[in-house]
Amino acid sequence: MRLPNLRLLTDHDGKSARSHTTCKYKCGNQCFREHDNQSDNEYFGDITRRTVLRGAGVAALGAGAVTVLAACGDNGSSGAGASSSAAAGNGAPSANVNAPGLNFTAIAPNKADAVTVPEGYEQAVVIRWGDPVVPGAPQFDFDNQTPEAQAQQFGFNNDFTDLIAVEGKPDTFLMVCNQEYTTGTAMFKGYKEGDPTENQVRVEMAAHGITVVEVKGEPGSGKLTPVLGEYNRRITASTPFELRGPAAGFFTRTAADPSGTRVLGTIANCSGGITPWGTMISGEENYTNYFSGTDTPPLDGLKEGWKRYGVGKDEDAHHWMKYEDRFDLSKEPNEINRFGYLVEVNPHDPKSTPIKHSALGRMKREGGNIYVTPTGDVVTYCGDDSKFEYIYKFVSSRKIQPGKGAAAMEANMRILDEGTLYVAKFEGQKVENGKVPEGGYKGTSTWIPLLTTKADGSAESHVEGMPAENVALWTRVAGDKVGATKMDRPEDIEPNPKTGKIYCALTNNSDRGTEGKAGIDTPNPRVKNKSGQLLEITDNHTGTDFSWDLLLVCGDPAAADTYYGGFDKTKVSRISCPDNVTFDSHGNLWISTDGTNATFDSNDGLFGVVLEGKDRGLTKQFLTVPFGAETCGPVVRDNRVLVAVQHPGETDDATADKPTSHWPDGGSSQPRPSVVAVWKKSGNIGT
Question: What are the TM regions of this chain, as residue ranges (predicted)?
């Protein structure tokens, strides 16, 4: 029996749900240093230290036992898979529950090197890393990669994905997809960690960013095939962007860009969304680990911000500074301040300049998603995906201009330039670690204003002692000063289009309630939280008050500290480490996971959850991704489901010379991150 994750046990000590390799290349091992939020914000809960430590001991004992078990899984055979029903010991949902949109037989947890789907469903890869995107792009050649070729091909480690219908072409879409990060050891044979060649670095830079590619469906199937069409585009770490808003020109000026408004590239693009006016928005998340050279800021004005954002503290696994000075903090200290924004791309115009919006602040941004109120107000929700960071919303002062022409698009791409940025402060009842309150976790809370950006480009700070440009650039510091609530890694946040309620995945936080760290509170109720929770917000979208509850407190359904919306926990699929969320046409929530292997002996997957009625909280697993992979970017339509399979086979003993996965092509092939479509052989999804 292989033990591909053995290093996970010795190096991670419960700090991360990922392999050491993923942690190194994705986020610079930030879990293994002191977290960035050292503010003394008061956390509610008012629990005694004795209660915290008593709970921590119990949590640590259970978590350790699970982690050892998870490391013992076999690497399954490659290829596609269909599953029989989940065994009762794995929390199989009741076959008698009728849940529109979720009427499929939940799959069993597994460790297969395959995408596993329910019986009666089929699947096909839509596009892989290296597949041609731009007309004239060469075919992928793993052993002879060049930056010129990669800049025309599908990028590495796909994340957020969505489909935008092409007008006048039935079942034809623009598929937009983030390429979050690269793993040199998986991309190149003979790769020397810490000493990549210039060609390897340039290929990796071209493999980052965003892809726009036309895809076409097939009659009677959910399959999608790429078309080398006129809209296709690759945006990379070198593509010019326009930086707008209060941060533009403020500690963003460089030798190459004295204006501080023309930025090259986007990196670490995690989740995102589609705006009502047809653009894509994407969050720049773990960008700090692409910069190194010094952790000492050369200017006094950078000291507080650098410290709060962990600049120079993460491990630089990419070493781009060897070949581009802008990634060397000792030579170009302002370059890093040009990342961490919500970016906006017009996929309908491949020649358009993408935008970075600083009016929404700067952070390690998971993504952003928009809700339009009945009166036409545009509200954007987003999270800062690090331990003990905050949840934000932005209420625009502009309304959507109707129409599909260039003038309407230009006007609507100004919507995120004007408005007020808020941060969330939660309130709720006292909680005890490991004990679910009667009626679940809930509370009423407040949005605190941080920054208002006006139509003329000027901005007003609402934070005492911080000018507006500081709030836009050092948004975390602003949140500290107003007493925002420290959360357990707020990841994807999306509004339910049917109800307007907001759903936020809080992935995990192994430091919660430990010595010197923030203790538990109602929205973050567990010490050493390994499995995460799912937050449901009922918002006064343009106002400052909201109520909330925890829909799910994830983990083993047999454990006393888990909660599945009040549903019978013996009839649910177990879920851990929620990451991305989306909705189907029935109003069900769908959740993809990142890190299940650290909690259970199984691969990550995609789950459907009932939100309303007597079956609220029913959770069913629809698919699993291959061994070592993360489930990203779910898209759920009536006739198909898409997922982005990120870092397949990325275990600590895997390299391009000795891969531990051969998905998706099987045989002795190299693993390739890919987008997959799944559909029902007869009928719609979940019917």
Answer: none
